[in-house]
């Protein structure tokens, strides 16, 4: 019976080990915080490693350096996921380590070389964000930017309840004005496979802009959520995680035990 097949061995071969599971690194955007990813990561299994980056929201160079340091501290493959301004950092430092295998843009910006947040926003009409931004002057002559509670739902979270919108608005962290105009270097999406998911009711970043960025990046996959707002990862967390799962499998990794 030396040639007998051990079924347990086959099961072991089919089950992803801790060494082959990618770490999912989530990057939140402006006017938000790390907790905005909470609903999405609740759909991950207990054994899927992930990190939520506390984005400083100061400027592209220093924010990118902080993200790069986190990426370089992680062992094994990484899938990098960004929302809104977080996509700027994906573009800036996605190639900071060879461990990053894919980029997922969730209602996120994907600037090209020498292009900034403001440059992209000026490409297409349809954003209500510039007209509602409120500035808080800083001692260094710069300013922090906020979205007022009264405008938060309309511009950033039109598919969430009033209570959810209020929680997001009051928890938001400001973006330094410098981050709007800082250009990125050679973008990581030019060398890494990337995926884009966004809502067709995004009133912060126009759907036409999302479509343009995904096409320009040669996206491996694109999904448009009908009625989805800019806060897609909060309003449709399971759908966003399913999309991330498909991206992971496309680069030959599995996200184990995803909540059905």
From TrEMBL:
<dbReference type="InterPro" id="IPR029058">
    <property type="entry name" value="AB_hydrolase_fold"/>
</dbReference>
<dbReference type="InterPro" id="IPR052897">
    <property type="entry name" value="Sec-Metab_Biosynth_Hydrolase"/>
</dbReference>
<dbReference type="Pfam" id="PF12697">
    <property type="entry name" value="Abhydrolase_6"/>
</dbReference>
<dbReference type="InterPro" id="IPR000073">
    <property type="entry name" value="AB_hydrolase_1"/>
</dbReference>
<protein>
    <submittedName>
        <fullName>Pimeloyl-ACP methyl ester carboxylesterase</fullName>
    </submittedName>
</protein>
<feature type="domain" description="AB hydrolase-1">
    <location>
        <begin position="24"/>
        <end position="241"/>
    </location>
</feature>
């Amino acid at each position: 019976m030396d040639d007998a097949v051990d079924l347990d061995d086959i099961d072991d071969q089919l089950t992803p080990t801790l060494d082959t599971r990618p770490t999912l690194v989530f990057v939140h955007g402006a006017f938000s915080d790390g907790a905005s990813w909470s609903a999405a990561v609740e759909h991950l299994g207990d054994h899927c490693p992930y990190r939520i980056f506390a984005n400083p929201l100061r400027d592209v160079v220093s924010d990118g350096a902080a993200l790069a340091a986190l990426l370089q501290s992680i062992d094994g493959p990484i899938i990098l996921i960004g929302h809104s301004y977080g996509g700027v950092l994906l573009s800036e430092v996605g190639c900071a380590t060879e461990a990053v295998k894919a980029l997922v843009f969730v209602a996120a910006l994907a600037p090209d070389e020498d292009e900034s947040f403001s440059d992209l926003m000026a490409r297409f009409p349809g954003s209500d964000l510039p007209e509602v931004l409120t500035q808080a002057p800083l001692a260094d002559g710069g300013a922090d930017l906020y979205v007022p509670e009264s405008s938060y739902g309309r511009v950033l979270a039109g598919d969430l309840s009033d209570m959810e919108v209020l929680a997001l608005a009051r928890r938001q962290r400001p973006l330094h004005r410098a981050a709007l105009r800082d250009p990125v270097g050679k973008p990581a999406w030019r060398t890494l496979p990337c995926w884009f998911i966004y809502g067709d009711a995004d009133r912060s970043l126009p759907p036409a802009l999302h479509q343009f960025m995904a096409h320009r990046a040669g996206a491996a996959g694109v999904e448009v959520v009908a009625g989805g707002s800019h806060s897609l990862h909060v309003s449709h967390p399971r759908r966003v995680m399913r999309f991330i799962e498909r991206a992971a499998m496309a680069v030959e990794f599995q996200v184990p035990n995803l909540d059905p």
